[in-house]
Amino acid sequence: EYALIRLAEASEQWDGAGSGRRYAALARHFLRHQHETRAPQVANQSEMPAVLRTEMRGHAVRAMYFGNGLGGAGRLCDDFALARASDRLFDNVVDNKLYLTGGVGVNTSEAMGANCELPHNGYCEACAGCGLAFWCLTRTRAKAADERAHAVYERVLYNNVLGAIGADGRHFFYRNPLTSALVRDSWHGSPCCVGNIARTLLALKDNLLAVSADGTTLYVNNYMDIETDDFRMETAYPFDGKVTFTLKRGHYDRILARFPDRAESRLYRMSPAVAHGYREVKGAWELPLPEQKVTAIDEVKACAGQEAFQRGPLVYSWEGPNFDLKVPNYRRLNNGGESRVWRTK
Prior knowledge:
The chain is of the alpha+beta class. The chain has helices at 2-15, 20-33, 60-76, 80-96, 126-142, 147-163, 192-202, and strands at 179-180, 209-211, 217-220, 226-227, 231-235, 242-247, 254-259, 268-271, 277-280, 284-286, 291-296, 306-311, 314-319, 325-328, 339-340, 343-344. The strands form 4 sheets. Strands 8, 11, 12, 13, 14 and 16 form a 6-stranded antiparallel beta sheet that branches. A 4-stranded mixed beta sheet has the order 2-3-7-9, with no helix packed on it. Strand 5 and strand 6 form a beta hairpin. The N and C termini lie far apart (44 Å).
């Protein structure tokens, strides 16, 4: 369904003749009738009509693309019931099933767990992280300043997706548990993550900027050092919060930049708190990047009496014989030792 939605958007841009609407309509048809199978099952979200679903269940990778397709088809086909279902499920995932590192999926059947079921050895397949990243992009196409979607996107990108890739770019994690002694693979019997990670990184540009419907406001949603024919963004983010933005052509009445607070999920409490929202900026600004201590709400039993730390979008992992070496999660080594995100207070 997601592929059909993207094809629909691309076709509209290419020929303007409305051919893309057929692809969007086909995606909508699949989503509207996916429960009419001879063997409905939770694993592929076919046990009930999509528009009635309030909790995301089933295979985690399929679940992310399923919710993603609902949002895209709802928007392109003006099917408000599908769009609302996508919103409900996104909120259910973020507020009940999202690991601090942006991972989803808790067990070896690669499935979503129950609400607040977040064991430290959860599966957190890299492909599920990619699917969640694309779901966030679909949401921001519908609403440019969807602050929550941008925040989830950062969390999953910098920790689950980039955390799956080795420093040499040739080894990767298929699954990304928060407590682990895994070693990155050079290949995998199910190599879906290899291509999925690559296309997730290629889509980085799609989430940087957006323009308001009336064309008067430019939104700066995420940050990287980049130059195009239209603009130049200079930054060492996420290691440094300083941003310099130069508009090389075009005119906007306002430029609004996103100042994230890292508290997009009800599951986690961050201290100190950071003021957030979109603020009008001119030329240069600095994002606050304090180190924040994280605790989980009582319903997350796996994290009782424990704490984690993050700085900006980067969650830390603890390594070494006494878990005294603190490194960003994407750099976790797991080379014969054990790595933990949560540790006893």
